[in-house]
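Quick one:
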Amino acid sequence: MAEIINMPRLSDTMEEGVVAKWLVNVGDTVKEGDILAEIETDKATMEFESFHDGVLLHVGINEGETAAVDTLLAIVGEKNEDISGLLNPTANSGQLDLVDQINESENLTSNIEEEPTLKTSNSALNDSFEIITMPRLSDTMEEGTVSSWLVNVGDIVKEGDILAEIETDKATMEFESFHEGTLLYIGINVGETAKVDSLLAVIGDANSDFQIAVDNFGVNQVPSDKIEKTDVPDLISKTTDIKSELVTEPSPNNENSRVLASPLAKKIAKEKNIDINLVKGSGDNGRIVKEDVENFKPSATTTVENNTDLKISESGIESFEEIENSQMRKAIARRLKESKFSAPHYYLSVEFEMDNAIAFRNQYNSLPETKISFNDIVVKACAISLKQHPRVNSQWFEDKMRLNNHVHVGVAVGVPDGLVVPVIRFADEKSIPEIGSLVKNYASKARDKKLSPDEMQGSTFTVSNLGMFGIEEFTSIINQPNSAILSVGSIVKKPVVKEDKITIGHTMKLTLACDHRTVDGVTGSLFLQTLKGFVENPVTMLV
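Output:
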């Protein structure tokens, strides 16, 4: 059965998109996971994949055209399937065009009442209340954890007020209300985890009769992957949009009101065993930020009281502590498992001489207000080398291989909860100081959980550096769908042979993990030879 595909919302602020390029043509067979098109949003050009198997029957937005979110983008179905009813709704009574379904609320309501399985969706459109579902706050988010509620049941909320802090697989983000009214019901309590589109809350008039909608939420709903895009449920299930993070006024002070603090401030307070309620906030509207916690000086009484919570392990007694996996940790586990067991990894290890690189860095850093790292040099060298070896800059898909002409280098950054990979876009076109500045900025945002989804998407190659921790050599798992990842070790001072003489030198070991489906051994070796020339003689990158 034909499936209508609409212009997706690929960023939290996206209202319209431009089809930069179609990667399939009408008549082509597509599978779930195939990239259909490259879509330019307000933040980046992103790949949009198919969630259905079938034949591309119709393209609704041509290359270069701009259209609003939810506009008809394409139709995928069975070969030679009649889709005239979807393209010309007046020719088929009982079916409405998607735009008409949105604009003609009377028809929408009547269709809902005729369908007994849509009780929850009908309630979501009730004039007296709105059902709010767990939002999808990142491209890979499948479930979220409510870190804190910033309003309580009975509180009046306005459009733009922050309702809750939600932990995704990548960051903890503030979720705002898009409706005005009273918070009537909370469906997911603090600390609880639920899948995207689960019942999060109900907002509406204080005297609204919403309980039936809550009781029937999800009852007899058709699974989302089985719903036709022309059906009313798909329109109604998206009652809220995802917006960017905003700061708002705290709810009125009462016994149940929660402290308004950033997720990082709360985390640091927990690590330092500081009662967040005792910290005075310096941010907007008294919001507690990182610096407030770090500068907090507890009294002697507070220190003694808080120390009673410390866990003391007794000698000779077995004990353990169970820690629930965060959304980030779950996502890391899932993606690494998929990569390790689907991509045939093999590894190429090399050792580079670093004496020239050390001298180059010292000279570069002698310039006013300039400071570069060895990692910046490696990232730049990789970016230039990838332009000469497109196979290493490729991506594997089940029915095709993509050779990327652009170079977007992901740089692995360790954070307390795991690992994130911000992306240096068009790294080959950036100077070494520009790369260094971006890496520092992304690392700081990563530690504060402030990286946006767009800043972590689109990599074509990844660099992972543990050299600063004294690790001399290691291997990494490929960040799919990329074809390779480079593991960078520490610089070691040791005896080396130069011109048949033993002398003291500096070397660094690097290991390239390759996907054998796209990168053969010779291809990977030639890339490392090119990389060796740039790293061992960095001045050549400036020519």
